Amino acid sequence: MPEAKHITSPTPYASSGDFLRIFHEEKHGLSRLSFLLTADQEKAQQCFVSGLEDSVKENSVFKEWARSWARRAIIQCAVRVINPRPTQEEVASRFNSSGKTPAGEPPEIAAVLELAPFERFVFVISVLEHYSEHECSILLGCSRRDVIAARLRAVQQIEMQSNFTLSRR
């Protein structure tokens, strides 16, 4: 009777190598995500590295989810570094806390960077990354109402900024 061959199927979980490959292949997009969240090159680099380290340590993520997990790791690191908190609606801040936008950024990037930290996080996570209001509120540790209000303020400010930029041309 022939001996049965043991066929090993590939693991359904992402390996450290899978995450290293993802961070290498998507370095530009993940770096841009980190920068949009932090509005600071140094902090963005710190979040990128921490996101990579956190992803490589994680060993129970399905391979199909590894890319979105890498993006989520960047978001979580940025939340830890910046700790964005909701502002009171009537005292909504118009510009980010640093007050400096890097020169040479395209107008649409500059408009996002000029948002107050909480509004910037909500805009990037909910609008650009397509997280639901519920997911966004969990990541930021706030209510869905805070997310909705911050997204509205962010969109209004970006529209005002883009109208101002267009009128200057």
Question: What are the SSEs and their pairings?
Answer:
Blueprint: H1 16-25, H2 27-38, H3 41-57, H4 66-82, H5 107-113, H6 117-128, H7 133-140, H8 144-168
Please give a quick description of this structure.
The protein has 169 residues and is an all-alpha fold. It folds into 2 domains: 13-83, no CATH class; 85-169, Orthogonal Bundle (Arc Repressor Mutant, subunit A). It has 8 helices and no strands.
Describe this structure in words.
This protein starts with 15 loop residues before the first helix and ends with a helix. It is mainly α. Residues 90-99 have low confidence and may be disordered. It is globular and about 55 Å long. 64% of the residues lie in helices and 0% in strands. The protein is built from 8 helices and no strands. The longest helix has 25 residues, at 144-168.
Overall SS class: mainly alpha
Low-confidence stretches: 90-99
DSSP strand count: 0
N-to-C SSE series? Answer: HHHHHHHH
CATH fold label of the largest domain: Arc Repressor Mutant, subunit A
Q: What is the CATH first-level class name of the largest domain?
A: Mainly Alpha
Integer tally of domains: 2
List keywords for this structure.
2 domains, 0% strand, 169 residues, single chain, Arc Repressor Mutant, subunit A, 64% helix, mainly alpha
